[in-house]
Amino acid sequence: MAVSVPVEVQRLSSENPISRIPVHGHLFFEILLITEGSGLIMVDGIVHTALPGSVFLIPPGMPHDARALGTAAGWTLMFTSEGAAISAEPQLALLEDAPVGLVFDFFRRFSGGASAPMILPAPEMEVVVSLLERIEGELAQQLAGYDVAIRAALNLIMVQIGRRGIVAGNRTGEVATQGRALLARVFEDIDLHFRTDASLESAARRLGMTPAHLTTRTRRLTGRTYGDWIIERRMIEARHRLVTMPESLAEIADAVGYSDPESFIRRFRAHHGITPAQWRNKALREDEEAMPTASPNKS
């Protein structure tokens, strides 16, 4: 039975071929949600850290590259504007032809250069994930009325994300918003200094707080300390370089902030269960496999 609604949902992991496609754009809308793990993603020429709760809105034509997502996992939802509307005329619409309101307006904001992710709090992320699972099930079973159910779930996802974008844009004084603002500063500092001058004391001085306050607040908001995130960011960079650059392990160790290759290899093995060389070999084997391209289902 042919799928009559141009919507596609996929679970995102290192096993998904999407994570190995070079820089590309496409003619449909994409919502990428990270639910666990961490990594890097390039959107419109800017590299962002992908963390649980991160939502990237990728409008038609915007270049992006998910090859450095590393341990990050989640969902990718692809659709045309017709997929979100009750219409019998499927089409691949340009961004300027898309409906006005909620998520489509936020897609326009991303298209204008504001490509940083929105962050969904855990309860809101669970709602979106349940809707994605509903779409996945409807697409698989294709029972009577499945196209209506899919569009309904897609619109609820758009409303959920759109409301979060409005709240973030209003700069409310809620504690959760303050926490997200602090984390944005902390992760920006980590991105700038994870290679050198990455001690807790130095970070606290740059951020204008005591080391104890920085590590307590970071642990309370994320479940991990500043030092844990420094290691995570170094591992993200290491995985990216192992897969995309012909550098020696000594060169990678130096580039990510380790004084000698042995320290880097020990840390990498402790973090991933395999050595950097084994990680690189595994990635190279996967790249030799055929890479199918992804596109939303069309009637």
Low-confidence stretches: 86-95, 170-176, 290-294
Percent helix: 40-55%
What is the count of helical runs? 10
How many runs of DSSP E, i.e. beta strands? 8
Largest sheet: 5 strands, antiparallel
Structural class: alpha+beta
Mean pLDDT over the residues: 79
Shape: globular
The H-and-E topology, N to C, reads as EEEEEEEHEHHHHHHHHH
Secondary-structure topology with pairs:
Elements: E1 7-12, E2 29-36, E3 39-43, E4 46-50, E5 54-58, E6 64-65, E7 73-79, H1 102-111, E8 118-119, H2 122-141, H3 146-170, H4 175-193, H5 200-207, H6 211-222, H7 226-244, H8 249-255, H9 261-272, H10 276-287
Antiparallel strand pairs: 1-7, 2-5, 2-7, 3-4, 3-6, 5-8
Polypeptide structure, described:
This protein has 299 residues and is an alpha+beta fold. 48% of the residues lie in helices and 13% in strands. It has 10 helices and 8 strands. The strands form 2 sheets. Strands 1-7-2-5-8 form a 5-stranded antiparallel β-sheet. The protein is globular. The termini are close together.
Task: Please summarize what this structure is.
It contains ten helices and eight strands. The chain has a five-stranded antiparallel sheet. Strands 4-3-6 form a three-stranded antiparallel sheet, covered by helices on one side. Helix content is 48%, strand content 13%.
Which characteristics define this entry?
single chain, 299 residues, alpha+beta, five-stranded antiparallel β-sheet, three-stranded antiparallel β-sheet, 10 helices, 8 strands
